[in-house]
Amino acid sequence: MQLIESILADAAAVTALRRDIHAHPELCFEEKRTADLIAKALTDWGIPIHRGLGTTGVVGIVKGTRGHSERAVGLRADIDALPITEHNTFPHASQHPGRMHACGHDGHTAMLLAAAKHFSNEKNRDFDGTVYLVFQPAEEGGGGAREMIKDGLFKLFPMEAIFGAHNWPGMPVGHFAVKNGPCFASSNEFKIVIRGKGSHAAMPHLGIDPVPVACQIVQAFQTIVSRNKRPIDPGVISVTMIHTGEATNVVPDSCVMEGTVRTFTLELLDLFEQRMREVAEHTCAAFGAECEFEFVRNYPPTINHPAETAFVREVMAEVVGPEGVEEFEPTMGAEDFSYFLQEKPGCYFLIGNGDGSHRIGGHGLGPCMLHNPSYDFNDELIPLGATLWVRLAHKWLATPRA
C-alpha cells in the first residue's frame, strides 16, 4: 500500500476533526456547524473557498503551481447525517439524540480534508490545472447534489469530470471496489389512496371495501416485475405501508398504500410508473372504488462513465495493488451523486470500511453497518482515501484529454 507520508503525518489531527464532526451531526441542509468547520480548516490551510451552494455546501479551490491551464477535476464528499439515535457511548458519539453519522459522511469529509491539507503545501501542487474540493450537503434524501448544480456549481467551477467515494462495511480495509455502468439504483416513492365506501362489517354488500382492492393491487404489482419487464433487467417494487381502518366491525372507506421503486435505468422506471398507474386505477375501477395515484422520483440511477471508471481503476491499483481492486456488485440502494454524473463524466466507487473490529470500547451491540445505530467510520481509511484523492487529481491533470 503506497500511502503519502505527509498525509500519514497529519492523520491524527484529521481524525480529531472527523470525530468532532461525528459528535455534532447535522441533518440535510442544516449542516451549518459542519460547513463552518470545513471552511475554517480550508481557510487556515490557505485554500480559497466558496460557500452557499445547495444552502450549506463548501467548495475548496486548489490551483496547481505548474502553469495556468483551465483544466480542472472535482472531488466530492457528502457532509450530512441521518435522523437516527446513536447507540454508541464512546467519547465522540453523537451529542444530539435523534441525529447520527450512521453512514460515514463524517469520514468522507475527513478523507477529502486530509487531501486538502496535503495540497495546502505548495510543493504538493505540482500540477497544471485546478482541483475542486466539493463538500456537498443533503445526500440523505435532500438531493444536495441537485441543489448545488441548480445554484451553479458547474458554471462557477467548470470541471472535466467529478469523482466520489463511499465507505463500505464488510469490505476489507485496503480494498476498493468499482464498476462501470449502473452501480446504485434510482430511488422513487409511490402513494396510492383507494377510496371506497364505508359500511358495517356485518353488511359489507352495502359498502365498497378498499382492503381487498389493496390486496389485489399488491399482488398485481409483482406481475409487473415478473411479466412486464425483461427478466435480465433488475427492478424492485415494494409496498411497505398499508394504512386503513379504525375498528374491527367497520369496513373503512379508504386505504392508503405506500412504498418504493428501484431501477437501474430510466427506461424501466418509465415502464414501472406507467404500469403501476394502470394497474392501480383499473383495479380500483373494477371494484367500484376511486384511485389517487402519486409517484415521486427521488434520485436517478448512479451510472459510472466507462473512461473515468477505467481511470479510477488504474489509480486504485497504483495505490493498493491490483489485488486490492474489486468489482463492485451493484446495489439497489441509491446515491445522489447520480445528479453529478448526469451532468459530467465521472465515477463513484467504494472504499472498504472493514468488519467493525476497529470500533473502540463503548460501541453499540449491533453490527457496524450503514444506517445502523452502532456504526462508526474506520479512521484507518483517512490516509488511504486521501492518498487516492491526491493520486487521482495529479494523474488526471497530467493525462491529456481529448
From TrEMBL:
It comes from the Bacteria. Coiled coil: none annotated. Keywords: Hydrolase. It holds the Pfam family M20_dimer. Residues 189-283 form the Peptidase M20 dimerisation domain. CDD domains: M20_Acy1-like (cd05666). NCBIfam families: amidohydrolases. This is M20 aminoacylase family protein.
